[in-house]
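Long-time lurker. I teach an intro course on protein structure, and each term I like to show students one example going from raw sequence to a predicted 3D structure in token notation. This year I'd like something fresh instead of my usual example. Would anyone be willing to generate the tokens for the chain below so I can use it in lecture? Attribution to the forum is fine with me.
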Amino acid sequence: MNIYPYGHDFGNSETCGVLIVGDEHRSRCIPSVSYPANSQGFSELGNKLGDGRYIYSDDEMELYMGDLAIDQSFSPDSSMGDINRYASHQSRYFLLTVAASLTDEREFGIHVVTGLPVLTFLGNPELRKAIPKALSGTYEFALNGKKRTIHVTVGQILMEGASVLPHLGLKGDLLKAVIDIGGRTTDLYVVRGQSPIEELCRHGTMGVELALRSFNQRFERKHGRELSSYELKKLQESYVSSRRPDIPFMVDGIQVYGAMDILEQTMMEEGRKIVSFVSKRWNETETGKVASSYDDVLIIGGGAYYFGEMIQSRIRHARIVEQPEMANVEGYAMAAERLLYRRRVAS
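-- Reply from a regular --
Happy to contribute to a lecture. Here you go:
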């Protein structure tokens, strides 16, 4: 049986996984939402499972996962904001779904590294112990009707941000930093050499999903209804495109426009909060210079697409990494690869 290194990132907005097979890094992200499924009814209605659409099932339940949950439910289930979700059944369902989607093998093993936000990691040692217990084990299930068996071993829990430190180069005693913007949180991580600076590592409650919640409240006040998860996803896709075309939505049988204007205003306000949060924590002078003495500042997380340029306007040498939403999980997978190698050598 093959055993692979695997990085698992159960984010508020998306769950991302990286499976390392030889020299190949296979990756996938799906929205961190699910909904009770009825696969028989789904198929009887003429629906088909396209690429990226998944139904997870085991002896106890059947779930639409990710985009399919958004397609099939106005408001799919999410554990957003619950720190215990990292050690939950739901985290395991998403781990198994994403891992199984990255290979056709019926049975295989994964050596997992995952992570926690900075203050969640520092303030919850019991949670760090609970995650391996919750996720490790042998699981038999089906993904899109195909039987699978995955043997899961959790090898390490890292602090979010620490996983991308190899991108920074840790020689010498220069300060290097990471700004990780997610769905509900923005985490700051600073190291000198390989030692984290506790005073400069901070956690803020702000991000993309919180901005979307505020947007939906404004849209409802204006038009009398909220947008569904499916509609929000389409609007987000338009927002991060180069042209940001407006999208009409139906309200009482009439197409209404202007959702993009409301979203742009809301994102700008959330971005100002994030820039203010970073500036207050990393301010170095009375003239307002922020992180000026830092050798390198990386912006990662899905929020980089929305707020990265605003941060760069304040910290000129900050840089957005390629595929910022994958930065943490790629680091987890590489850490898992090193752990698995040492384990094999030791045995």
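Some talking points for your students: The CA atoms of residues 53 and 67 lie 6 Å apart. Residues 259-282 form the longest helix (24 residues).
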